[in-house]
Structures are given as structure tokens and as C-alpha cells.
Write a structure and sequence with these properties.
By secondary structure, the protein is mostly helical. The protein has 13 helices and four strands.
Length: 268
């Protein structure tokens, strides 16, 4: 299935490093190619009324074909409509669910029609496809003009910084190009605040909190403060374990207050 380069490189760290880099580059290239093919697949199943008219294909005959099949617009404003069956057929070929195939097509069309600068980088295999798709998905509700401005602002930042840093850049760019939409989405996201507890695993459970940034910052600061105080009092557990203990202490207001009061008189 694979060539014998791996066998010949066994024990040679430099050669193995080259293989890792080459494999990573090929994976990035092929993922980008999947997006390009998805866009071409959409073109082959586009609404006839969205295609350029040819001499042998009159508008009347195209409209007749369109009436026999439903068409949808999976992408944002400015993207073409495609046949309803298009995602399902692509999903079968790529072993994807209909929903996943529809998202793949929508992201490809958004990139090509709404984010052309980023699309050119995708077509050249210069960026990770999943990162480009995140930009397409998050900007889908923007108007065409706002999307083009977002494209100009973030296109060349995509592979220059870490993903966490880029998310902050993208967030700021979204606020800049459409503050009204950004505010509305922020309000909508507040409805999804919640706290979850995962299944027990050898006596431990995972606590997941989805809350406003300010609330999480305050809570994390309190957790870190209590964890530091535990270390001052002789707790030799790693910092992560002390943070977990701190959550339990903060869940008991009397115990948390007692601990904090014992250290309020410290000069530092």
C-alpha cells in the first residue's frame, strides 16, 4: 500500500523528519483538493438558471428541467443554488453523511464566491482546509460585501499565527465588518450557557462550563487563587490537582471563606 521509504528511513531521525513533513504537506494538499472538487461537484449540479446560457440550451428548456428538480442554497449570500440530491450523491462517493457532504459543499462555495483571496490559497494548497472551512462557516451569515472585507482582513493571517490567536483575529474582524450581526450572535450565544457533568471514570467526573467570558475569567481566577493558597499550606499535589481540589472548596462557600480569610492578612 505504501512505498518502502519508511523501512529505509528506520533509525534515521533526519530521514524520518523529512517523511513526516512530506506526509503532512500531502495531507494538507489533498484536503484542499477535496474542497476544490466539492465546488466542481456543485457546479455540475447547479441550478440551470445560475449557469451561463449556451446557444443550444434555451432558457425555456432550462427552466423546464429546474421545475423537475428542487434546488437549495447551502452557502451564504452570493453563492449558487444546487440540486437537492447533490450532497447525498457526493456523500455516497466520499463515505460522508448527507449533512457532512452538504457542509463541505457549502464551505467550498462560500470560499470560492465570498472569500476569493482565501479560496486562491486553498486552490494552491497553502492552508489547512479545516481552518479555511472554519472561516467560511463562521462568516456565512455576513452579507457579500462584509464577507469580502473579512476576506481581505484575515486571508494572510491564517497560517502566520496559532489557531487560538487566529480565532481572536477572526473575532475582531467579524466585529469590525458587521458589528450589528456580531452583537446579535453574541446575544444568541448567551442562550446556550450551561454546565455539564460527564460520566464517572474511576471516581472522577468532568465538569464543563459554557459561560460568558467575564464569568469564566473570574471563576478561573478564584480557582487559581485557592490552588495557590493550598500550596502555601503544604499541599504537594501538582497544580492541576490543586485546581481540581479548589473547585470543590469553592463549592463550599464556608470552607472557601475560611481559607481566604486565613490569608487576607498576608503582606503579599
Amino acid at each position: 500500500m505504501f512505498d518502502d521509504d519508511l523501512d529505509s528511513a528506520f533509525g534515521d531521525a533526519a530521514r524520518l523528519a523529512e517523511l513526516v513533513a512530506d506526509t503532512h504537506a500531502l495531507a494538507k494538499l489533498y484536503e484542499c483538493r477535496r474542497l476544490v472538487i466539492a465546488a466542481a461537484w456543485a457546479d455540475a449540479h447547479a441550478d440551470p438558471d445560475d449557469r451561463p446560457e449556451r446557444a443550444e440550451d434555451s432558457r425555456t428548456s432550462r427552466r423546464t428541467r429546474a421545475e423537475n428538480e428542487g434546488f437549495v442554497q447551502p452557502g451564504g449570500a452570493g453563492t449558487p443554488r444546487i440540486a437537492e440530491t447533490c450532497p447525498a450523491e457526493l456523500g455516497v462517493l466520499q463515505q460522508l453523511s448527507v449533512g457532512s457532504a452538504r457542509c463541505l459543499i457549502a464551505d467550498a462555495l462560500d470560499l470560492r464566491h465570498r472569500l476569493p483571496r482565501l479560496w486562491s490559497r486553498v486552490a494552491a494548497g497553502e492552508v489547512h482546509a479545516w481552518k479555511a472551512r472554519q472561516v467560511a462557516t463562521r462568516s456565512r451569515q455576513l452579507g457579500s460585501i462584509a464577507a469580502a472585507e473579512l476576506d481581505r482582513l484575515v486571508c494572510h493571517q491564517l497560517e502566520l499565527v496559532s489557531w487560538a490567536r487566529f480565532e481572536r483575529i477572526l473575532d475582531a474582524a467579524m466585529l469590525h465588518v458587521d458589528p450589528v450581526l456580531y452583537g446579535r450572535r453574541a446575544e444568541e450565544s448567551r442562550a446556550h450557557r450551561d454546565v455539564w457533568v460527564g460520566e464517572a471514570d474511576r471516581g472522577l467526573r468532568t465538569l464543563i462550563i459554557r459561560a460568558c467570558q467575564g464569568d469564566t475569567a473570574v471563576f478561573l481566577a478564584a480557582v487559581n487563587r485557592v490552588a495557590d493558597l493550598l500550596a502555601d499550606e503544604g499541599d504537594e499535589d501538582p497544580v492541576g490537582a490543586r485546581r481540581a481540589t479548589a473547585v470543590g472548596i469553592l463549592g463550599n462557600p464556608a470552607a472557601a471563606l475560611d481559607l481566604l480569610n486565613r490569608h487576607t492578612r498576608q503582606r503579599d
